[in-house]
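Hi there,

I know you've been waiting on this one. I reran it after we fixed the sequence typo, so this is the corrected version. Both the input and the resulting structure follow.
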Amino acid sequence: MVPGSLSGRRRAGGYALALIGAALLAAGLEPLRGRLDLASDALLFLLVVVGAAILGGLGPALTGAAVGAALLNFLFTEPYHTFRIHESSDVVAVVVFAAVAVMVSWVVDLAARRASAVREAAELEAGNRLRTALLAAVGHDLRSPLATAKAVVSGMRSTDVVLSEEDRRELLETADSALDRLTALIENVLDLSRLQTGALPVRTRPVAVDDVIARALDDLGVEPRAVLLDLPEQLPDVVADPGLLERVLANVVANAQRYAPEPPLLTAAATNGRVHVRVIDTGPGIPQSDRDRVFVPFQRLGDSSATGLGLGLALSRGLVEAMGGTLTLEDTPAGGLTLVISLPAAPTTATPAPVPS
């Protein structure tokens, strides 16, 4: 194994298997000494060595090989209970066992080292791809709103241009919008990073779905584009973090508005102890082969004109899964895409029947 790649618990388990496992095997085989030959005993001890190598690495495996060879010599070669060996064939068997056990230990350890190196290389490559994508996104998507705000401030400070109050108001609105966009982009990057490292706090409790939907649409601002709502009157609460769920709903609705020519439809239904919220659009949809890619950070599937880092759906799925739910994609029957947010329904407390007086 790569030094330091195994935990202390695994190494301790490997040594325990090498020592205690070999001792227990010897105790079980000794009554069968007359019915099993030395080669069979050696193969069984070799299994202990292989198990110690897989569990704890090279050190426990070599320990198992040494203990196994000693036990084979002491208990299973004549004269018994001594370290002398009368038969030359038994000498060969014990020596071959020790040699094979050492070679097996080395091969298992070498395979583990190579697997660890491949895994580390894959993680490094994934990290490099993520950093490259982040730098490419930062090169435009984060710089663009910052440049807009900077241009507005510079224009307002200039003494060469006379601005009316209406012009100043429009410029300030432009700067405010650009800074809001910049703030949202940075928050998405930071939240995705915290989510991937498990540092994003998630506080779930029973919440009313329609209340969260209303707040999400208010924050999103659906004008001039509408969102059609079709929510049942009796919908159970869900177990979720209300702030995170609000953000998820705003993200998926905004995504549906961006790609669909018609207003998206938002529905909800409860089945089998879960509440399923669907955001249905009639846009171009996504091919089945590309559906996993939309949940990968910095992927926008040909959306070269839209602003943002391509984090919306990746972050939304991560937030939903952190709350114990799922976010999946379905085809809209009339054409388009349906995003399904499934969350556990809150347990209902039965109202006790009135006690007759």
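Quick highlight: Residues 8-122 form one domain.

Best,
R. S.
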